[in-house]
Amino acid sequence: MVDLNKELFCNIGDCSVDGYFIFNCTTQKFSYLNKSLSNIWELDADEVLDHPKLLLKRVHPEDLTHVKSCYKECLKGNTENKYEFRLLFPGREKYVRAIIFSVTDGAVKYLVGTLEDTTIMRHNKIHIEQINARKNITLEVLAHDLKEPLGMMKLIASSMKEGIAQTGDERMINSLAFIQDMCERNLLLVRSMVNKEFLKSSVVEIRKERADLVWELRDVVRFYKRSKLGKIKHIKFTSSAEQIYLRLDSMKFLQVINNLISNSIKFTADYGHITLHAEEHEDTVLITVADDGIGIPEELQAGLFSHLPETLRPGLKGEESGGFGMGIIKAIVDLHQGKIWFKSKIGVGTTFYIELPK
Protein backbone atom coordinates (compact mmCIF):
# COMPACT_ATOMS: atom_id res chain seq x y z
CA MET A 1 0.00 0.00 0.00
CA VAL A 2 1.21 3.55 -0.81
CA ASP A 3 0.57 6.29 1.76
CA LEU A 4 -0.57 9.59 0.31
CA ASN A 5 0.44 12.91 1.86
CA LYS A 6 -2.45 14.89 0.38
CA GLU A 7 -1.34 18.25 1.72
CA LEU A 8 2.18 17.97 0.29
CA PHE A 9 0.88 16.62 -3.03
CA CYS A 10 -1.60 19.51 -3.38
CA ASN A 11 1.03 22.10 -2.46
CA ILE A 12 3.33 20.76 -5.19
CA GLY A 13 0.43 20.69 -7.64
CA ASP A 14 -0.50 24.31 -6.98
CA CYS A 15 3.02 25.35 -8.08
CA SER A 16 3.39 23.07 -11.08
CA VAL A 17 2.86 23.72 -14.79
CA ASP A 18 1.88 20.05 -15.12
CA GLY A 19 -1.54 18.77 -14.16
CA TYR A 20 -1.93 17.17 -10.71
CA PHE A 21 -5.05 15.29 -9.59
CA ILE A 22 -6.60 12.99 -6.98
CA PHE A 23 -9.61 11.02 -8.20
CA ASN A 24 -11.96 9.19 -5.81
CA CYS A 25 -12.94 5.92 -7.54
CA THR A 26 -15.89 5.40 -5.17
CA THR A 27 -17.61 8.75 -5.68
CA GLN A 28 -16.29 9.10 -9.25
CA LYS A 29 -15.27 12.68 -8.39
CA PHE A 30 -12.00 14.56 -8.16
CA SER A 31 -10.84 15.25 -4.61
CA TYR A 32 -8.26 17.61 -6.04
CA LEU A 33 -7.09 18.97 -9.38
CA ASN A 34 -4.81 21.90 -10.00
CA LYS A 35 -5.32 24.78 -12.42
CA SER A 36 -2.71 23.42 -14.83
CA LEU A 37 -4.76 20.28 -15.44
CA SER A 38 -7.85 22.29 -16.37
CA ASN A 39 -5.64 24.49 -18.59
CA ILE A 40 -4.29 21.45 -20.44
CA TRP A 41 -7.82 20.16 -20.95
CA GLU A 42 -9.04 23.72 -21.67
CA LEU A 43 -11.99 23.35 -19.32
CA ASP A 44 -13.06 25.28 -16.26
CA ALA A 45 -11.81 23.57 -13.08
CA ASP A 46 -15.18 23.90 -11.31
CA GLU A 47 -16.94 22.28 -14.27
CA VAL A 48 -14.56 19.33 -14.16
CA LEU A 49 -15.05 18.95 -10.39
CA ASP A 50 -18.82 18.86 -10.88
CA HIS A 51 -18.86 16.81 -14.08
CA PRO A 52 -15.67 14.68 -14.46
CA LYS A 53 -17.03 12.97 -17.59
CA LEU A 54 -16.51 16.24 -19.46
CA LEU A 55 -12.88 15.17 -19.74
CA LEU A 56 -13.83 12.22 -21.95
CA LYS A 57 -15.43 14.57 -24.48
CA ARG A 58 -12.01 16.13 -25.07
CA VAL A 59 -10.31 12.78 -25.74
CA HIS A 60 -9.57 12.09 -29.40
CA PRO A 61 -12.23 9.63 -30.70
CA GLU A 62 -9.49 7.30 -31.98
CA ASP A 63 -7.98 7.13 -28.46
CA LEU A 64 -11.18 6.89 -26.42
CA THR A 65 -11.19 3.09 -26.17
CA HIS A 66 -7.52 3.20 -25.21
CA VAL A 67 -8.20 5.73 -22.40
CA LYS A 68 -11.09 3.67 -21.01
CA SER A 69 -8.96 0.52 -20.97
CA CYS A 70 -6.19 2.48 -19.17
CA TYR A 71 -8.67 3.49 -16.47
CA LYS A 72 -9.73 -0.14 -15.96
CA GLU A 73 -6.08 -1.22 -15.78
CA CYS A 74 -5.39 1.38 -13.06
CA LEU A 75 -8.23 0.03 -10.94
CA LYS A 76 -6.77 -3.49 -10.94
CA GLY A 77 -3.39 -2.88 -9.32
CA ASN A 78 -1.30 -0.67 -7.09
CA THR A 79 1.58 -0.03 -9.47
CA GLU A 80 2.67 3.04 -11.42
CA ASN A 81 1.14 3.26 -14.88
CA LYS A 82 2.19 5.53 -17.75
CA TYR A 83 -0.06 6.35 -20.68
CA GLU A 84 -0.06 8.59 -23.74
CA PHE A 85 -3.13 9.73 -25.64
CA ARG A 86 -4.49 12.70 -27.57
CA LEU A 87 -7.00 15.43 -26.87
CA LEU A 88 -8.98 16.84 -29.78
CA PHE A 89 -9.87 20.51 -30.23
CA PRO A 90 -11.30 22.30 -33.28
CA GLY A 91 -8.59 22.17 -35.95
CA ARG A 92 -5.85 20.83 -33.67
CA GLU A 93 -4.91 18.11 -31.23
CA LYS A 94 -2.76 17.76 -28.12
CA TYR A 95 -0.57 14.90 -26.98
CA VAL A 96 -0.56 14.25 -23.24
CA ARG A 97 1.29 11.84 -20.97
CA ALA A 98 -0.29 10.64 -17.73
CA ILE A 99 1.49 8.99 -14.79
CA ILE A 100 -1.04 7.41 -12.44
CA PHE A 101 -0.77 5.61 -9.10
CA SER A 102 -3.52 3.60 -7.44
CA VAL A 103 -3.70 4.41 -3.69
CA THR A 104 -5.99 2.83 -1.10
CA ASP A 105 -6.94 4.86 1.97
CA GLY A 106 -9.06 2.68 4.23
CA ALA A 107 -11.88 1.37 2.10
CA VAL A 108 -11.50 4.06 -0.56
CA LYS A 109 -9.36 3.72 -3.67
CA TYR A 110 -7.88 6.84 -5.25
CA LEU A 111 -6.14 7.40 -8.55
CA VAL A 112 -3.39 9.93 -8.02
CA GLY A 113 -1.23 11.29 -10.78
CA THR A 114 0.18 13.93 -13.04
CA LEU A 115 -0.57 15.02 -16.59
CA GLU A 116 1.99 16.57 -18.96
CA ASP A 117 1.33 18.34 -22.26
CA THR A 118 3.84 16.68 -24.61
CA THR A 119 2.52 18.13 -27.88
CA ILE A 120 5.64 20.08 -28.87
CA MET A 121 7.98 17.28 -27.80
CA ARG A 122 5.85 14.71 -29.62
CA HIS A 123 5.67 16.74 -32.83
CA ASN A 124 9.44 17.24 -32.73
CA LYS A 125 9.97 13.52 -32.17
CA ILE A 126 7.66 12.60 -35.05
CA HIS A 127 9.48 15.06 -37.28
CA ILE A 128 12.89 13.63 -36.31
CA GLU A 129 11.65 10.06 -36.86
CA GLN A 130 10.32 11.01 -40.29
CA ILE A 131 13.65 12.58 -41.21
CA ASN A 132 15.58 9.53 -39.99
CA ALA A 133 13.25 7.06 -41.68
CA ARG A 134 13.41 8.95 -44.96
CA LYS A 135 17.17 9.29 -44.65
CA ASN A 136 17.49 5.51 -44.33
CA ILE A 137 15.13 4.90 -47.24
CA THR A 138 16.97 7.52 -49.30
CA LEU A 139 20.26 5.73 -48.64
CA GLU A 140 18.70 2.45 -49.73
CA VAL A 141 17.17 4.00 -52.85
CA LEU A 142 20.48 5.74 -53.55
CA ALA A 143 22.32 2.43 -53.35
CA HIS A 144 19.98 0.97 -55.96
CA ASP A 145 19.90 4.03 -58.21
CA LEU A 146 23.69 4.46 -58.26
CA LYS A 147 24.38 0.79 -58.88
CA GLU A 148 23.29 0.89 -62.52
CA PRO A 149 25.08 4.07 -63.75
CA LEU A 150 28.25 3.40 -61.78
CA GLY A 151 28.30 -0.20 -62.96
CA MET A 152 27.78 0.95 -66.53
CA MET A 153 30.59 3.52 -66.24
CA LYS A 154 32.89 0.84 -64.86
CA LEU A 155 32.00 -1.52 -67.73
CA ILE A 156 32.54 1.16 -70.41
CA ALA A 157 35.86 2.20 -68.85
CA SER A 158 36.97 -1.43 -68.85
CA SER A 159 35.98 -1.85 -72.51
CA MET A 160 37.75 1.36 -73.52
CA LYS A 161 40.88 0.35 -71.61
CA GLU A 162 41.08 -2.92 -73.55
CA GLY A 163 40.86 -1.05 -76.86
CA ILE A 164 43.36 1.64 -75.90
CA ALA A 165 45.79 -0.94 -74.52
CA GLN A 166 46.72 -1.76 -78.11
CA THR A 167 47.84 1.85 -78.71
CA GLY A 168 50.17 1.83 -75.73
CA ASP A 169 48.83 5.19 -74.47
CA GLU A 170 49.76 4.80 -70.79
CA ARG A 171 48.13 8.09 -69.80
CA MET A 172 44.72 7.03 -71.14
CA ILE A 173 45.07 3.51 -69.74
CA ASN A 174 45.84 4.88 -66.26
CA SER A 175 42.97 7.37 -66.47
CA LEU A 176 40.46 4.64 -67.36
CA ALA A 177 41.81 2.39 -64.59
CA PHE A 178 41.28 5.31 -62.21
CA ILE A 179 37.64 5.65 -63.39
CA GLN A 180 37.11 1.91 -62.85
CA ASP A 181 38.57 2.10 -59.37
CA MET A 182 36.48 5.18 -58.41
CA CYS A 183 33.27 3.52 -59.60
CA GLU A 184 34.02 0.44 -57.50
CA ARG A 185 34.97 2.51 -54.45
CA ASN A 186 31.78 4.57 -54.63
CA LEU A 187 29.60 1.50 -54.96
CA LEU A 188 31.22 0.02 -51.86
CA LEU A 189 30.91 3.36 -50.03
CA VAL A 190 27.16 3.67 -50.60
CA ARG A 191 26.53 0.05 -49.55
CA SER A 192 28.75 0.52 -46.49
CA MET A 193 26.74 3.60 -45.44
CA VAL A 194 23.47 1.68 -45.69
CA ASN A 195 24.86 -1.27 -43.75
CA LYS A 196 26.34 0.89 -40.99
CA GLU A 197 23.08 2.81 -40.51
CA PHE A 198 21.17 -0.44 -40.14
CA LEU A 199 23.80 -1.94 -37.85
CA LYS A 200 23.33 0.95 -35.40
CA SER A 201 19.75 -0.16 -34.85
CA SER A 202 20.83 -3.39 -33.17
CA VAL A 203 23.06 -1.80 -30.53
CA VAL A 204 20.81 1.02 -29.28
CA GLU A 205 18.07 0.30 -26.76
CA ILE A 206 14.56 0.60 -28.12
CA ARG A 207 12.06 3.15 -26.83
CA LYS A 208 8.52 2.03 -27.55
CA GLU A 209 5.66 4.52 -27.79
CA ARG A 210 2.11 4.25 -29.06
CA ALA A 211 2.09 4.71 -32.83
CA ASP A 212 -0.25 4.33 -35.80
CA LEU A 213 1.35 1.46 -37.73
CA VAL A 214 -0.77 2.07 -40.84
CA TRP A 215 0.41 5.66 -41.15
CA GLU A 216 4.05 4.65 -40.66
CA LEU A 217 3.98 1.84 -43.25
CA ARG A 218 2.04 3.87 -45.79
CA ASP A 219 4.65 6.62 -45.54
CA VAL A 220 7.49 4.14 -46.24
CA VAL A 221 5.78 2.73 -49.33
CA ARG A 222 4.86 6.21 -50.58
CA PHE A 223 8.53 7.19 -50.48
CA TYR A 224 9.61 4.12 -52.45
CA LYS A 225 6.88 4.65 -55.06
CA ARG A 226 8.05 8.22 -55.65
CA SER A 227 11.62 7.03 -56.30
CA LYS A 228 13.05 5.51 -59.47
CA LEU A 229 12.47 2.06 -57.94
CA GLY A 230 8.73 2.75 -57.93
CA LYS A 231 8.81 2.95 -61.70
CA ILE A 232 10.46 -0.44 -62.22
CA LYS A 233 8.77 -2.37 -59.37
CA HIS A 234 5.09 -2.59 -58.48
CA ILE A 235 5.12 -1.70 -54.76
CA LYS A 236 1.87 -1.39 -52.82
CA PHE A 237 0.53 -1.29 -49.26
CA THR A 238 -2.75 -2.68 -47.92
CA SER A 239 -4.25 -2.81 -44.44
CA SER A 240 -7.24 -4.37 -42.68
CA ALA A 241 -7.99 -1.06 -40.90
CA GLU A 242 -7.45 2.67 -41.42
CA GLN A 243 -5.58 2.94 -38.10
CA ILE A 244 -3.79 0.24 -36.12
CA TYR A 245 -2.28 1.39 -32.83
CA LEU A 246 0.44 -0.47 -30.98
CA ARG A 247 3.62 0.26 -29.04
CA LEU A 248 6.68 0.58 -31.28
CA ASP A 249 10.09 2.09 -31.52
CA SER A 250 9.01 3.48 -34.88
CA MET A 251 12.43 4.47 -36.18
CA LYS A 252 14.01 1.07 -35.56
CA PHE A 253 10.98 -0.93 -36.68
CA LEU A 254 10.85 1.01 -39.94
CA GLN A 255 14.48 -0.01 -40.45
CA VAL A 256 13.23 -3.62 -40.37
CA ILE A 257 10.53 -2.90 -42.95
CA ASN A 258 12.94 -0.92 -45.10
CA ASN A 259 15.46 -3.75 -45.07
CA LEU A 260 12.84 -6.37 -46.00
CA ILE A 261 11.56 -4.22 -48.88
CA SER A 262 15.15 -3.63 -50.00
CA ASN A 263 15.79 -7.40 -50.05
CA SER A 264 12.62 -7.95 -52.06
CA ILE A 265 13.80 -5.35 -54.56
CA LYS A 266 17.19 -7.07 -54.90
CA PHE A 267 15.65 -10.48 -55.64
CA THR A 268 12.62 -9.44 -57.70
CA ALA A 269 12.88 -8.84 -61.44
CA ASP A 270 11.99 -5.47 -62.96
CA TYR A 271 8.23 -4.86 -62.99
CA GLY A 272 7.75 -7.56 -60.37
CA HIS A 273 5.37 -7.12 -57.43
CA ILE A 274 6.17 -6.29 -53.79
CA THR A 275 3.29 -6.02 -51.31
CA LEU A 276 3.30 -4.79 -47.72
CA HIS A 277 0.21 -5.67 -45.67
CA ALA A 278 -0.89 -5.07 -42.06
CA GLU A 279 -3.59 -7.27 -40.53
CA GLU A 280 -5.08 -6.44 -37.13
CA HIS A 281 -6.13 -9.27 -34.80
CA GLU A 282 -7.53 -9.17 -31.28
CA ASP A 283 -4.21 -9.19 -29.41
CA THR A 284 -1.64 -9.02 -32.22
CA VAL A 285 -0.84 -7.37 -35.55
CA LEU A 286 0.54 -9.39 -38.47
CA ILE A 287 2.72 -7.57 -41.00
CA THR A 288 3.70 -9.28 -44.24
CA VAL A 289 6.23 -8.30 -46.89
CA ALA A 290 5.67 -10.44 -49.99
CA ASP A 291 7.30 -10.54 -53.42
CA ASP A 292 7.14 -12.65 -56.57
CA GLY A 293 10.92 -12.80 -56.90
CA ILE A 294 13.34 -15.67 -57.36
CA GLY A 295 12.77 -17.12 -53.88
CA ILE A 296 15.25 -18.43 -51.30
CA PRO A 297 16.91 -21.79 -52.00
CA GLU A 298 15.91 -24.43 -49.48
CA GLU A 299 19.51 -25.05 -48.42
CA LEU A 300 19.87 -21.38 -47.34
CA GLN A 301 16.62 -21.06 -45.41
CA ALA A 302 17.69 -22.63 -42.09
CA GLY A 303 20.54 -20.16 -41.52
CA LEU A 304 18.88 -17.04 -42.93
CA PHE A 305 18.53 -15.23 -39.57
CA SER A 306 22.08 -16.16 -38.56
CA HIS A 307 25.30 -14.53 -39.72
CA LEU A 308 26.27 -17.54 -41.81
CA PRO A 309 28.37 -16.53 -44.83
CA GLU A 310 26.87 -19.30 -46.97
CA THR A 311 23.45 -17.55 -46.80
CA LEU A 312 24.77 -14.42 -48.55
CA ARG A 313 23.79 -13.92 -52.18
CA PRO A 314 24.21 -11.02 -54.59
CA GLY A 315 21.01 -9.47 -55.92
CA LEU A 316 19.74 -9.95 -59.46
CA LYS A 317 21.78 -6.92 -60.56
CA GLY A 318 24.83 -7.85 -58.52
CA GLU A 319 23.90 -5.94 -55.33
CA GLU A 320 26.10 -6.95 -52.42
CA SER A 321 24.75 -8.25 -49.12
CA GLY A 322 26.00 -6.71 -45.89
CA GLY A 323 26.00 -10.07 -44.17
CA PHE A 324 24.13 -9.04 -41.02
CA GLY A 325 20.78 -7.62 -42.17
CA MET A 326 18.57 -10.59 -41.36
CA GLY A 327 20.20 -11.14 -37.97
CA ILE A 328 19.52 -7.53 -36.99
CA ILE A 329 15.95 -7.73 -38.31
CA LYS A 330 15.27 -10.66 -35.98
CA ALA A 331 17.00 -8.90 -33.06
CA ILE A 332 14.81 -5.79 -33.43
CA VAL A 333 11.63 -7.88 -33.76
CA ASP A 334 12.65 -9.84 -30.64
CA LEU A 335 13.13 -6.56 -28.74
CA HIS A 336 9.51 -5.74 -29.60
CA GLN A 337 8.47 -9.15 -28.13
CA GLY A 338 7.45 -10.17 -31.63
CA LYS A 339 8.00 -13.15 -33.93
CA ILE A 340 9.35 -13.30 -37.48
CA TRP A 341 9.30 -16.16 -39.98
CA PHE A 342 9.05 -16.63 -43.74
CA LYS A 343 7.85 -18.89 -46.53
CA SER A 344 9.66 -19.10 -49.83
CA LYS A 345 9.56 -21.11 -53.03
CA ILE A 346 12.07 -20.96 -55.86
CA GLY A 347 10.67 -19.11 -58.86
CA VAL A 348 7.47 -18.16 -57.02
CA GLY A 349 8.58 -15.64 -54.38
CA THR A 350 9.04 -15.01 -50.67
CA THR A 351 6.79 -13.77 -47.88
CA PHE A 352 8.10 -12.56 -44.53
CA TYR A 353 5.72 -12.50 -41.56
CA ILE A 354 6.14 -10.30 -38.47
CA GLU A 355 3.73 -10.76 -35.57
CA LEU A 356 3.73 -8.03 -32.89
CA PRO A 357 1.73 -7.77 -29.65
CA LYS A 358 -0.74 -4.89 -29.37
Provide a descriptive summary of the structure in words.
The structure is a single chain. With 358 residues, this protein is of the alpha+beta class. It has two domains: 112 residues, PAS domain (Beta-Lactamase, 2-Layer Sandwich), CATH 3.30.450; 236 residues, 2-Layer Sandwich (Heat Shock Protein 90). The protein contains twelve helices and twelve strands. Strands 2-1-5-4-3 form a five-stranded antiparallel β-sheet, with helices on both faces. It has a five-stranded mixed β-sheet with strand order 7-9-10-12-11. α6 packs parallel to α10. The mean pLDDT is 82.
What is the strand arrangement across the widest sheet?
Answer: 2-1-5-4-3
User: If helices are DSSP runs of H or I spanning 4 or more residues, what is the number of helices?
Assistant: 12
Total count of strands: 12
Integer count of domains: 2
The rough form would be described as elongated
What's the architecture of the largest domain in CATH terms? 2-Layer Sandwich
Radius of gyration: 27 Å
CATH C-level of the largest domain: Alpha Beta
Strand content: 25-35%
Mean pLDDT: 82
**The CATH superfamily title of the largest domain:** Histidine kinase-like ATPase, C-terminal domain
What's the CATH topology label of the largest domain?
A: Heat Shock Protein 90
What ranges have pLDDT less than 50 throughout 5 or more consecutive residues? none
Largest sheet: 5 strands, antiparallel
**Alpha-carbon distance between the termini?**
30 Å
Percent helix among the residues? 40-55%
Helix/strand-derived category reads alpha+beta
Compressed to H and E, one letter per element, the order equals HEEHHHHEEEHHEHHEEHEEHHEE
